[in-house]
Amino acid sequence: MSKTINPDRLFAACCIALIVTAMTFAIRAGILSQLSASFQFSDTELGWINSMAFLGFPVAMMVGGLLYNSLGARTLMYLAFASHLLGLILTITADGFWTLLISTFFIGFANGSVEAAANPLIADIYHTNKTTKLNKFHMWFPGGIVIGALISTLMTKLGMDWQMQIAVMLVPTVIYGVMIFGQAFPEMANSETSTKNNLLALISPLFILMMITMSFTAATELGTQQWVERILGASGAHPMLILALITGLMAVGRYFAGPVIHALNPVGVLLVSSVLAAVGIYLMSMASGGMMYIAAIVFALGVMYFWPTMIGFVSEYLPKTGALGMSLVGGAGMLGMGIWNPIIGGWIDSEKAKAVENGLTGVAVELAAGQATLTNLAVLPVILIFIFAGLFIFRKKYMK
Predict the structure, then answer these.
(1) Higher model confidence: residue 28 or residue 200?
(2) How confident is the model at residue 168 (pLDDT cuts 50, 70, 90)?
(3) What's the CATH code of the domain at 269?
(4) Does residue 91 fall inside a structural domain?
(5) Domain that holds residue 298
(6) Cβ contacts of residue 80 below 8 Å, gap of 6+?
(7) Any idea what the Cα angle at residue 222 is, between residues 220 and 223, rounded to 5°?
(8) Which of 21, 46, 48, 354 is surrounded by the most beta carbons within 10 Å?
């Protein structure tokens, strides 16, 4: 007799796996200085190590999306667990650049496997409430960043080495592993069609638009957060507190996403989010001191629904793309970050040079460069406003 599927247990396991994913981002950021001191790495070498996580993630999502109909959520979640375990252990035992490069790729691959399995799995087991449950699932990415950042900060202050900080993540990894092994999974997720039909459905102007748009939403959300210390370091506000405030609000907002999604529908949510994100970044570009925290709240309200609602949009309005479509859109977001990161870094360098030419010195250079970079970043959500406004009109006329 086949086992009965336990949706709540599977959902909880997916959430814990996403917490591990987020903790890898936060704790890796927190131990960069220790890694540099331990191995005498240059910033370029640290950059290459970090880039492996951004490479492994989309590779896993795209491969997982293509093979989902053959492998199913169970196999991909098992693969995520094994890759997390392997990546973390290899990191703890690493003795140099190449071993850290390999271990970080495995961790990134594990993180992508979690999303490749969990997004379509959740869309399937909560078929009538997809976008709301996806938002509740994705609340644990910002939530996990807060958890990881606090753990890393505390352990660093207690003088604990970077290996111990990595080892902490083995605990939630083992927990979600125990929760998934032996459980019944749906045979398919979010798709009653074949992979061939999924591929044919990708040849759609709307899907291609969403792939491109995902890079803009990801850069608006993750780009601003990833560069928060470099951009806001001279603003008079504490960058890590700003990051904690933003991610904390995002976690809460995603948990209570249901009423918002039902009131505005996914397209409406994306449109309103773009407006708030643009206003938030613009306010941050002018604020300093305590006002920066107010501006950060507006920004958090703007970006909190971007990632899960984009995936929910594909699931609801492009269902024939199946798990493959959801995975490719998520992968496009992370690949987009790989493209936008050097662009954002270039903006900072360029604006610093301009500030020096204008006669500024010291902290004033950092402040001017940060504010100008934020002004450049604000262009992305402004572009999104026009895209989602058009989609909103299109949805009213042609979409269910």
Answers:
(1) 200
(2) very high
(3) 1.20.1250.20
(4) yes
(5) 195-400
(6) 17, 110, 111, 113, 114, 117
(7) 65
(8) 21
